[in-house]
Amino acid sequence: MKRAKIQDIADLLNISRVTVWKVFNNKEGVSEDMRRKVLECAAELNFQPSKLQEAGFSFPLKKQALVSVVVSRPETSVFWMKIIHQLAEEFSNTGIGLMYTYLPAEIPDGYILPQSLMDGSIQGIIIMNVYDKTALSLLNELSLPKVFLDIVTDMSIESLNGDILLLEGRDSIKEIVTSLANKGHKRIGFIGDIQYAKTNMERYEGYVSAMYQMGIPIEPNICYTGNMTVKTYVEIIEEFMNKIEQLPDAFVCVNDHAANMLVQYLESHGYRVPEDVAVSGYDDNNEFIYTKNLTTVQVNNSQIAKRLAKQLLYRIDNLEDPYEITYIRTKVIYRNSTSI
């Protein structure tokens, strides 16, 4: 449904645009009766909910806005649960209800999205931790206002019918690689599934860029960029490491999960971190044992949730505005695992 404009309200009530503007900006010069008519007319025309609330209009409870966070496997990491809980708080503060919609990690043939996403009961969705292209494509086809938190690598941003938030990773990983090289490390490997998520690919691009600028050749035998899942991290890292004849000076990992599994492998095989091999991660995820010693990239869960909520509310109020791509800045945290 097309969102009403101030001129639409003015035309219906046969008043000037200035009068409508005064109502929404709480200016003097408008009678209480006319003010009430403007607000009621605006509500009926689906005018911007945030503007109505600012002007003092109270929506009936039965018309309370409801949005949903669409998520897959949130239980796999505290990282996702923290964001969900903060989202619930953010929307609650604005009088909007939040519903959870869970999708399977792998979408079977003939899968149909939950009815709640298609029956008109919700006004917008936030999509996160969904890394199945079929699921993302189905969600992308919905006419609802939507905000994505990352997508799979082989899905183009230009194809999205919604806004997207991405965690900055290219520059932060580039900084880590450059710091390792400046410390004298010349053989630096990379571990991470770069097809899993667009942010993973961008972290790899940061690694490649830094290696190129520092004049260090990339050795394919010390880089693993293939498929990795939560259930296969240990197996894949062990198999990959067993094939390396001479360990590199350092490994840059796409996330803390991979970094922690790598540290466990190295220590179980008699190698010291960072004396023998330096290791870095990404996320600053404290649910892993070694994170307190791990050089990593800090991600602010609360900031992510606040930005997601703000973006969805903006999109609901501004359906015809161009879709936006937003990067959330991150911060490199140097710890003992690299001795930088």
Automatic annotation (TrEMBL):
Keywords: DNA-binding, Repressor, Transcription, Transcription regulation
Signal peptide from the UniProt entry: none
Domain of life: Bacteria
A GO term for molecular function: transcription cis-regulatory region binding
Coiled coil: none
Domain HTH lacI-type, first and last residues per copy: 4-52
PANTHER family according to UniProt: HTH-TYPE TRANSCRIPTIONAL REPRESSOR PURR-RELATED, LACI-RELATED TRANSCRIPTIONAL REPRESSOR
Protein name: Transcriptional regulator, LacI family
